[in-house]
């Protein structure tokens, strides 16, 4: 029987722009905060998995933290980098090989859109020359199709963004911390139809670190642990329409990397979508949150229109989603983004969310991160 895994410490460097501080230095900040939260020293850490897309090799942070000879493995897996680091770290403890380790991620992206290269995704150069690597266009085309098929309105896209900025106002680590009125969101300049500028997240900076421990070690530390009930990862199945897909199959199934990872996570945890009290879902843009609500099993395709209109995904709703504002309010430093979701869920389960705290202090929390060209990671936490 595999060992149980607990999160005993969390640390975050605020997201946004931090001139004069490298992404790696932000990572060091988060690690030290997580170690302090767990009440352990760097020398106690037996292993680490760290992710970064554009800010250097995570293992080089040992120059700042201490040359202890610790096993440190670098992870890079698109926007799912942070989730991949956590998935790898929890396996090291479940195997019984280690009892105390770190999952961490950081990034520092330049201003502007991500510069994805066709060759990195097994695509020909003409694909990029034709403009198909521009993710804003892909996301817009994908949600246009989804809206047509399932009756989703532009107003619902706006409600997602409005909620995100309202929640982010209460999150000290968020980049965008001012509410934005629905009309301002809908009337803002169009970037890629149907998305206005407030409906996209921005590449940014930030870092997150989580200290993981076996259940025995957590008791030894005297911590009140948050149990990692499930951690899954899946790549895209045949026929799924994912980022940088050159085409969409007609007459194909509805399976996606997210549906596969979600189903596996619920099976592993032995619970279902109705048992989740708070969720963080990948919201690279407003449409992603809407589609991922269905792909993760929380509603049927098309039901999002009523969910958003009724406020069911707000802090006081039946299923609060992206309680810290998600990527829309926090921005997306690729290496840290998926771990930010887990950080936020731990905060919620601890009852430490302040103005964004879900009422009643939830006992279950769900996170989902998605990355190109079709990778999803899901975690379920229980208190």
TrEMBL record:
Signal peptide, first to last residue: none
EC category name: transferase
Classification via InterPro entries: Thiolase (IPR002155), Thiolase-like (IPR016039), Thiolase_C_2 (IPR055140)
Enzyme Commission number, as recorded: 2.3.1.-
Record SUPFAM superfamilies: Thiolase-like
PANTHER family linked to this entry: ACETYL-COA C-ACETYLTRANSFERASE, NON-SPECIFIC LIPID-TRANSFER PROTEIN-LIKE 2
Identification of the protein by name: Thiolase family protein
Organism: Novosphingobium pokkalii
Segments passing through the bilayer: none
GO molecular function, one term: acyltransferase activity
Stretches assigned to the Thiolase C-terminal domain: 254-380
Key words of the record: Acyltransferase, Transferase
């Amino acid at each position: 029987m595999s060992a149980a895994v607990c999160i005993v410490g969390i640390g975050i460097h605020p997201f946004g722009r931090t001139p004069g501080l490298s992404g790696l230095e932000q990572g060091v900040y988060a690690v030290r905060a997580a170690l302090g939260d767990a009440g352990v020293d760097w020398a106690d850490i037996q292993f680490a998995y760290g992710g970064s897309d554009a800010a250097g090799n995570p293992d080089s942070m040992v120059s700042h933290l201490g040359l202890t000879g610790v096993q440190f493995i670098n992870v890079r897996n698109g926007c799912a980098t942070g989730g991949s680091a956590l998935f790898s770290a929890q396996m090291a403890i479940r195997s019984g090989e280690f009892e105390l380790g770190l999952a961490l991620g950081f990034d520092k992206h330049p201003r502007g859109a991500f510069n994805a290269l066709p060759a990195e995704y097994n695509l020909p150069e003409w694909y990029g020359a034709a403009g198909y690597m521009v993710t804003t266009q892909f996301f817009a085309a994908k949600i246009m199709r989804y809206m047509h098929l399932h009756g989703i309105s532009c107003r619902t896209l706006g409600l997602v963004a409005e909620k995100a900025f309202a929640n982010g106002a209460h999150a000290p680590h968020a980049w965008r911390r001012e509410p934005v009125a629905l009309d301002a969101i809908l009337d803002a300049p169009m970037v890629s139809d149907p998305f206005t500028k407030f409906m996209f997240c921005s590449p940014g900076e930030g870092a997150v670190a989580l200290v993981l421990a076996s259940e025995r070690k957590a008791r030894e530390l005297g911590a009140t642990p948050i149990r990692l009930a499930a951690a899954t990862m899946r790549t895209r199945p045949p026929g799924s329409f994912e980022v940088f897909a050159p085409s969409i199959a007609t007459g194909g199934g509805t399976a996606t990397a997210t549906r596969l990872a979600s189903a596996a996570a619920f099976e592993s945890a032995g619970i279902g979508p109705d048992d989740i009290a708070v969720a963080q879902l990948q919201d690279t843009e407003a449409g992603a949150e809407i589609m991922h609500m269905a792909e993760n099993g929380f509603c049927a395709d098309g039901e999002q229109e009523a969910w958003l209109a009724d406020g069911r995904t707000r802090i006081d709703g039946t299923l609060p989603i992206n309680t810290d504002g998600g990527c829309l309010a926090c921005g997306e430093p690729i290496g840290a983004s998926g771990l930010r979701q887990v950080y936020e869920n731990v905060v919620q389960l601890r009852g430490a969310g302040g103005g964004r705290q879900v009422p009643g202090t939830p006992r279950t929390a769900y996170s989902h991160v998605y990355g190109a060209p079709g990778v999803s990671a899901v975690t379920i936490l229980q208190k």
